[in-house]
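Summary: Need help interpreting a holo structure output

Steps to reproduce:
1. Submit the protein chain below together with the SMILES for zinc ion.
2. Request a joint structure prediction with the ligand placed.
3. Inspect the structure token block that comes back.

Expected: a single structure record containing both the chain and the bound molecule.
Actual: see attached output.

Input attached:
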Amino acid sequence: MGCWKDISQAAKTCRNHCPYCFLSLHVDDKIPGDRKTDCGWKMYPIAYEIKNWQLKICFQCKKCWKNHRNKRADDDEVEKLDMYIKKHKENLY
Ligand SMILES: [Zn+2]
Ligand SMILES: [Zn+2]
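--- attached output ---
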């Protein structure tokens, strides 16, 4: 389980994920920020990539298995991202 510290606050911006544990909510359908799905389930970080110096995090929904990519935010604790991706793969959070 994630910490849920800031997820309600984070959900007000175009970011859906928690800056501390990277847990996210499945609220967007096709376009990040469109808020067009009713799923609302938890999304976990499964991978990341760096393109044009920008870090993008890939999230997967635990209910419908849909993948989403989202930009990191400035206050994300990205140094912990690797750890959380591993944790998720081992089903520890
Ligand atoms: Zn959190
Ligand atoms: Zn979903």
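--- end attachment ---

Reviewer comment: The CA atoms of residues 51 and 60 lie 19 Å apart. The first strand starts at residue 24 and ends at 25.
Status: needs-info
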